[in-house]
Amino acid sequence: MTPTLSVLLFLGLCLNQRMKAQAEGLPRPFLWAVNGSLVPEGRSVTLRCRGSEEAEVSQLEKKERTHTVIKEVESNEIEDEFSFQSVTVSNAGSYFCIYMHSTSWSEHSAPLQLVVTGR
Questions:
Q1: 51-67 pLDDT tens trace
Q2: Which of 15, 53, 78, 85 has its CA 20 to 30 A from that of 100?
Q3: Can you say whether the dihedral through the CA atoms of 30, 36, 41, 46 is positive or negative?
Q4: What is the mean pLDDT of the chain?
Q5: What is the spatial distance between Cα 60 and Cα 23, in angstroms, rounded to a whole number?
Q6: The Cα angle at residue 70 between residues 95 and 25, in degrees rounded to 5
Q7: Calpha distance 18→106 (Å, rounded)
Q8: CA gap 53, 8 in Å, rounded
Q9: CB contact at 8 A, 54 and 103
Q10: C-alpha to C-alpha distance for 58 and 31, rounded to whole angstroms
Q11: How many CA atoms lie within 13 A of 102 on its CB side?
């Protein structure tokens, strides 16, 4: 078997595994801001992602041009916490969370719009 064929076969198997996990339907996570998503600049905010008890890793992502991984935590809870100690205007935006179980990622949560206001 040629190296190119081996690589294509491997990629096909990975894609098949991901599609199978999505078909099996990992529960979609839910993302919310503990004290609300309207936050005065300089204050702290905690975002919580409720996934699955089977989650091994949770990620918080911010939608910019593409999804950017902001924070990642090893998960051993149904809910994971992502804290920002002193928010600035640059923290404002649309956030999502996802989690991994085995080798599969869940779909993204519904977006959470974080709004940073003046002091």
A1: 988 888 999 999 887 76
A2: 85
A3: negative
A4: 82
A5: 23
A6: 60
A7: 10
A8: 34
A9: no
A10: 11
A11: 9
